[in-house]
Design the sequence.
């Protein structure tokens, strides 16, 4: 209990530091965060840019003359009460965008992680247990190659083959615009169809990295004395494989699942941009190209908080599931 | 007494990049029923290799070149994996050297009993639990507590006892223990020795154990086998051998034992170092260190010579 409390305090400090870094990075970017909004106001209402800028500043609650330290405190205060700011480009609160986008991102990365983890650990263990055979060489080489390919290259490749050449995948969106969302088979199928591109592009690299990690862990554990002693006691190969080798190899990986999901919040950006998939990453891309500082700061903060908390959950999870760590 | 296990000319090597490590080089010995045999020698002399070769539990990079291990009229080395699995653990149990790392860290002690019993029989769960409780009590541990612990929650001595309890599940005829007392403190060592003495009586066990501590061998064993560089150089009743050693190596050992320590790891009585098993000396492997070395020792490997009907020495002096 005391341990958890200690860790929680650390998590708090880490979040605070990370948010500080986010804030000052975005602050140091050149330009007026309300500029985009002001331009469109000036155009629609036919007023001078200066006047529009003033209105725009009011809308997003930004005062250029306000000292940076006050801005900083305001930012922290807002984040603390769950207000991620205002998007000048989409002219809505960042919270609303997060509410729209986060479910899609979570949908894809959790499915992709589940598949990547399951396939990766199964193949990785198989590879380790067939050390030196063709199967092992094949799996290990394939996974190493996949790991060496940047995620967006793979995504572009899948988009090109799947959507452009074979016309099997849609070119964007989370579902066809003409469909009304609901809980019926046709819609669910359409959801999966639209998520397929990002799903494949995200789960394949995941499979490779979980696979290589599992292969490494298993190869070490196969050499352990307790595996040898299990053989001496006459345990069957399948029991040894499941309960003695895989179980010990997979526990540390299960714990890092949470951290994986945390990091993917950010890492998923390019894949969503490429597939035009309306998740967090897509809006992140929009924020960058539109110089929408409000949205950028808000999404950045969300990702940072996600990663820090995922790390924390990972540690807790690890302590809960692995009896060896529990003791410490 | 009847011979229960007979090892003849057993040769095993490890294959490594530099060549072959000849760690068990033509070992012969008989084990009589209901006795305690001690295999003693310095570390890396090949003690573990001998017992692992005998039970066909050597690591994968090893190879048994020749020999036979006769148990109940059958050569274990010729049995199929299936036949061997029936005998191993239910009739011949082996507790390996690394007691501290031999339990699966992510399952409880009771699960080790389940896994072991399921592998051989189909007992009911409550029978298994009863058996486990009985055995854990027998090795003087508290079953309620220990069975539901994870390995890391136990001390070194407790783990060794758990391994011994596991080895007794099927009332084996022969129990082989590799260094059951090393890595334990002196008091725990004494407890384990006492425990083994009791178990031997209670279960009518034939015990074979490996040690590098002559005092442990003296305390526990009826018969002693002295190993040097992959060979058994001398064997006989423990008391006789220690009182009147015949082989120059055993003589060196026994003479260098002072009352303070009997641990071969700490004794530096014999000048020189044990040879490399990768490229051992020709003839008698002890000749570079032997005070009685003769010309023929360098050429010819000494045979086993009988001093009397119980004692055997592999040395040209006793031709
Ligand atoms: N798996 C292995 N691969 C290569 N060499 C080994 C292996 N196991 C043991 N050896 C070598 O074989 C020799 C005898 O080892 P071992 O039988 O373990 O000795 P002891 O049990 O007397 O300490 C040593 O030189 C050791 O380095
Ligand atoms: S055979 Fe020769 S070298 Fe070997 S122990 Fe006997 S006397 Fe010494
Ligand atoms: Mg050993």
Sequence:
């Amino acid at each position: 209990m005391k341990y958890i409390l200690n860790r929680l305090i650390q998590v708090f400090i880490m979040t605070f530091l990370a948010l500080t870094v986010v804030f000052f990075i975005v602050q140091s970017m050149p330009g007026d965060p309300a500029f985009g909004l002001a331009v469109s106001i000036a155009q629609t209402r036919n007023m001078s840019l200066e006047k529009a800028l003033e209105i725009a500043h009011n809308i997003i609650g930004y005062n250029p003359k306000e000292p940076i330290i006050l801005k900083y405190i305001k930012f922290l205060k807002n984040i603390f009460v769950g207000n991620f700011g205002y998007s000048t480009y989409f002219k809505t609160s960042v919270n609303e965008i997060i509410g729209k986008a986060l479910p899609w991102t979570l949908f894809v990365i959790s499915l992709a992680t589940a598949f990547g983890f399951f396939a990766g650990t199964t193949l990785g263990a198989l590879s380790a247990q067939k050390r030196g055979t063709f199967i092992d060489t094949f799996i290990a080489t394939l996974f190493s190659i996949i790991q060496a390919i940047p995620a967006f290259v793979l995504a572009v490749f899948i988009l090109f083959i799947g959507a452009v050449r074979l016309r099997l995948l849609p070119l964007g969106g989370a579902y066809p615009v003409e469909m009304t969302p609901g809980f019926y088979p046709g819609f669910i199928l359409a959801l999966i169809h639209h998520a397929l591109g990002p799903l494949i592009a995200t789960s394949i690299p995941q499979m490779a990295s979980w696979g290589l990690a599992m292969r490494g862990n298993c190869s070490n554990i196969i050499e352990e004395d307790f595996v040898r002693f299990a053989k001496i006691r006459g345990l069957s190969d399948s029991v040894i494989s499941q309960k003695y080798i895989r179980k010990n190899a997979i526990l540390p990986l299960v714990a890092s699942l949470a951290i994986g999901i945390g990091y993917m919040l950010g890492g998923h950006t390019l894949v969503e941009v490429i597939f035009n998939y309306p998740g967090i990453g897509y809006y992140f891309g929009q924020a960058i190209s539109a110089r929408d500082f409000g949205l950028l700061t808000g999404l950045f903060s969300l990702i940072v908080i996600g990663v820090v908390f995922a790390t924390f959950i990972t540690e807790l999870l690890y302590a809960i599931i692995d009896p060896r760590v529990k003791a410490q | 007494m009847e011979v229960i296990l007979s090892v003849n000319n057993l040769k095993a090597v490890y294959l490594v990049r530099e060549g072959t490590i000849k760690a068990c080089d033509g070992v012969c010995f008989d084990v009589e029923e209901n006795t305690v045999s001690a295999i003693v020698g310095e570390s890396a002399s090949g003690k573990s290799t001998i017992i692992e070769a005998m039970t066909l539990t050597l690591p994968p990079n090893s190879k048994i070149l020749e020999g036979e291990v006769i148990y109940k009229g059958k050569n274990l080395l010729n049995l199929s994996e299936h036949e061997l699995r029936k005998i191993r653990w239910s009739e011949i149990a082996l507790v390996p050297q690394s007691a501290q790392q031999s339990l699966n860290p992510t399952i409880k002690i009771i699960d080790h009993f389940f896994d072991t019993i399921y592998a051989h029989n189909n007992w009911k769960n409550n029978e298994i639990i009863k058996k486990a409780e009985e055995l854990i009590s027998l090795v003087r541990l508290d079953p309620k507590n220990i069975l539901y612990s994870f390995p890391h929650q136990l001390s070194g001595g407790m783990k060794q006892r758990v391994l011994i309890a596991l080895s007794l599940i099927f009332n084996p005829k022969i129990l082989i223990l590799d260094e059951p007392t090393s890595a334990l403190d002196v008091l725990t060592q004494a407890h384990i020795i006492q425990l083994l003495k009791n178990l031997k009586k209670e279960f009518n066990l034939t015990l074979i154990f490996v040690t590098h501590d002559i005092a442990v061998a003296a305390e526990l064993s009826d018969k002693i086998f002295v190993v040097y560089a992959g060979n058994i150089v001398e064997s006989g009743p423990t008391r006789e051998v220690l009182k009147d050693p015949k082989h120059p190596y055993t003589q060196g050992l026994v003479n260098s034992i002072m009352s303070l320590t009997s641990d071969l790891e700490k004794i530096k009585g014999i000048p020189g170092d044990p040879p490399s098993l990768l490229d051992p000396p020709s003839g008698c492997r002890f000749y570079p260190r032997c005070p009685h070395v003769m010309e023929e020792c360098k050429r010819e490997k000494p045979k086993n010579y009988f001093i009397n009907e119980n004692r055997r020495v592999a040395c040209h002096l006793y031709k």
Remarks:
- Chain B is about 30% helix and 25% strand.
- The two ends of chain B are 27 Å apart (CA to CA).
- Residues B 247-248, 284, 286-287, 290, 292-294, 297, 302, 315-317 surround iron/sulfur cluster (ligand 2) (CB under 6 Å).
- The longest strand of chain B covers residues 3-16.
